[in-house]
Every structure is written in structure tokens, then in C-alpha cells.
UniProtKB/TrEMBL annotation:
Class in the EC hierarchy, top level: hydrolase
UniProt function note: RNA helicase.
Family: Belongs to the DEAD box helicase family.
SMART domains: DEXDc, HELICc
Domain notes: The Q motif is unique to and characteristic of the DEAD box family of RNA helicases and controls ATP binding and hydrolysis.
UniProt protein name: ATP-dependent RNA helicase
Annotated spans, Disordered: 461-513
TM regions (residue ranges): none
Domain Helicase ATP-binding positions: 9-197
Lineage: Eukaryota, Fungi, Dikarya, Ascomycota, Pezizomycotina
Pfam families: DEAD, Helicase_C
Ranges for domain Helicase C-terminal: 225-383
EC number: 3.6.4.13
Amino acid sequence: MTAVQSQTINEAAKGIDTLGIARTGTGKTVAFLLPVIQRILQASPELEHRQRNPAIDIRSIIISPTRELAEQISKEAKRLVGNTGIKIGLAVGGTGRSVALRDMHRNGCHILVGTPGRLNDLLSDTQSGIVVPKLNSFVLDEADRLLDDGFGPAIEEIYRYFPSKMEVDRQTLMFSATMEQAVMGMVGKFMKRDFRTVRTVSADEVQTHERVPQHVVVMNGLENQIPALFELIKRESGPGKDFKAIVFFNTSAEVSLVRAIYDKSSLRNKIGIQGLEMHARLSQYQRTQTSNNFRHSKSAIMFSSDVAARGMDFPNVSHVIQMGLAKDRDTYIHRVGRTGRAGKEGQGWVLLTPWDTYLYKRRLSQLPIKVDGTLETASLDMSQNLAISQGVADLLTDTIQAAKNVDFTLKSNAFTSNLSAGQSVDKGLLIEALNRRAQYGWGMDPPPSVSNSLANKLGFSRTRELRIGDDPRAPPRSTDERKGQSVWQASRMSHGKYQDRSTRRTSLPSRAF
């Protein structure tokens, strides 16, 4: 039994509201499930045995910030109640609402695990049959992330459907990695005044981001990003090594693109390590399949957005590689926290562009991150013909050829996604960097163009470096997609004309290290 389990279960078994300060991967799921199950069995001893005709009789609601974490909780709960009459329901977005309701009405439900949006949807629908008059326990897992993701109002709305504590004595269990002010505000709203705090993160405990080796690589430009990543993968996945890596990107479109380039590269065949893709645009089924596949693999590379940065527990991750600067310090720390878990070894890498370095110093300068200059492809000027080793030349050729073979739409989407993700950078410098990446990193000449409406929306309509118009390399759009366009737009599309404003060149910032 882990520390968080022994301490939390002892307090919660007494019926006391409990706030657990614990990191992910410490066994907290079992720490709140066992008291919840015990409370149900104490109130209804008949559920100690299997029931023939179970009904919806919800006694506990468990809220999770993500579908994946909710699924993990549901799976663990089903394992724990396997020999009892207690039934588990799952309510998450991205899956069929009617299917979830049908399963609960058919199989019964005593513990309902879900994400805020879907739970609120079911409870607010008077036709769903989901009511909670006997609710005697309420669990908020990853409370800090629930608040970070803006779920506070939805949780308060869900709470409105609960019976008052005067009608039903209800125990509240809350888990968070931090005791930030917003979390304590939640405690004040939902927990009894005599709640207990269980802290399993000691003040002198060395956390993952302080323990595992971390390296920062400053690239010459965005065009060096994929070659540097592939060079690192090739080096770290040598013979006899288990290489299980999560590669984080700031946009889902970049995840899809780089995974596709990796799959088409000869590197993929040489090292024999599968590439997986994880982001919010995938269906729930696809995300579940990816999670299970990666979790049970000895060696694999999961290209991911921040969907996998918190809450999800993947064993034996050897490397976390961050492509670009995370949006804030906490996100960086949570990403790194996917490796070096349960006392295992791990490594953290972050690949930055020169203009990332100022924010890097502001956000991460106090962390034990060492500058690394060992990746040869990171510092190359890829616009020049340089004398380089045969191995590096082969890697560059392989990477660019693989990128050329990837669908145009994936490259266009990744290009566009960076327009909104890079709003803190000078617009002219950003577009020049993206154009260089497209030309020298993806083998696209000219770079992709964006629609006039999108350029206006994102404030790039006056940026001379950006190509604005319809790109003839894009696949034909359907009739429905053309509807609503102005005659002017349709005319531009039919003639394949562009606004090519790349007349001004500005130099990129120099390295700040």
C-alpha cells in the first residue's frame, strides 16, 4: 500500500471529508475508490453479493478532467467491485451519449465516473433518467487541473443536482497536486468544515523535474526541428535499449504531421519502433487504443499534445521530448513528470528555436536543465550546402523526402496551427520562420498559403511574408465547402491566384545562450 493510500484510506474510512495532496502515479485512484466502495456497502449490505436486476441507483460521482483518466478510474473501479453487486457507469465526451445511457439502464449504476461536460449534460436532462437522490460520496480527482481547464462553473452546476447534506450525509474526497488558492476555494464550497488534509508530498522530497537529467537544445531554426528530433531518437534508441518516449507538441496538427513523417521515414524501419499519435482531435476509441498500446509497449514513440501531460500513468517512459517551449512552467513540469516515475530513470529534452530562449529563461531558468550541443542537425543552416558527415546527410535526406511524401493537408494544417500558437512572436519573423521550415524542412517550395479570411481573423492580412489565397496543391473542396464564399473568393480560387508578399526579409534573433 502506498503512502497516499494508507493515509487517505484511514481518514476517509471514518467518513471524514479528505483533501489529498498527491502527485499522479502514487496510487491515489485506489485511495479514493476503496472508501467510496466501503461507504456504499455499509449503506446497502445487500450489494456485497451480485445482483440479478441492477438498477440505476447512483451513490457516488467521480469527476475527472480527461476522458482517458476517467476510463482508467472506471477500469480500476470495475476490478475492485468485481465480486460485488456494485455497478460502474462511465460518462465522457467523445463517446455515444445514447450508448452510455443504454448501458447504465441495462446494467445498473452505483458509481458514476465522468468528465464535467458529459456529467452536467446527463444530470440536466430530465429525460436521461440520471438522478442522484441517494448520493453519499463525491470525488474530484486532479482538482487543480479541473480548475486550470476551466471546469469550475460546470462542477458547480453539477453540484446543484445533488441532494442537500441535510437530506443525505455526503462525504467529499478531493485530490490535487497543489494547494493553490483556487483549489482551496473549491474546498470551501464542497467540503465540510472539519475536513482533513493528507499530504504525501513532503517539503524535502525531490520531485521528478528536480531529479531526472534534463537537456535543452537551441536549434538554428524551425526547419531543424524534425531532423534534430530524429537524430536524438536514432542515438537514444540504440541496440539493446528500451526506448519509450513521449514527444510533446503545442498543437494537435503538428502531432499528426510529425507522426506521419516518422512513419514514412527509413528511420522508422531501421529502428523498428512504432509511432503513435495522441491528441484531442482523435475519437475516444482511437485515444483509448493509443493509450493501451503505449502503456503495454516496451519500446514506442507517442507523439502527443498536452492531452497526455497530466493524469495519465504510462509505466517505464524513458524519454520526454518537448518540441518548443511549453505554455507555462507547470506544463513543462507535468510533461517531464511522465518519465522517471516510480523511482525509475528517465531523461527530459526540450528543443527550442532562438526566439524561445527569452521566455525559456523567464520560465525555466531555476530548473536543473543543461544546454546540450551534441545534436549536429540542430545547428545546421539548412538553406546552405555545407560539408557534413555522411550519416547526417543521410538523415537530412531521409527526413525531407519523408516530409515530401506526406499529405499536403497535414503540412498545411501544421503551418496554419502555428499562426495562432505563435502570437507572442513578431508576425514577420514568425512567418519567415514558418516559410523556412516549409521550404527547407518539408521540401515545400513555395510554402503553404492561408485563406484571406483566416489571415484577417488572426491579424496577418498585412504581413508581407505570408502567402494569402487558395493553394492549388490543396485537394479539391466539396460543393458544401464552397458554399458561402463570395464571388470574389470563388473567382480567386478558380484562377488559382495568390497574394505573394514575401518581399521583406528580416533576420531571426540570435541565440540567447
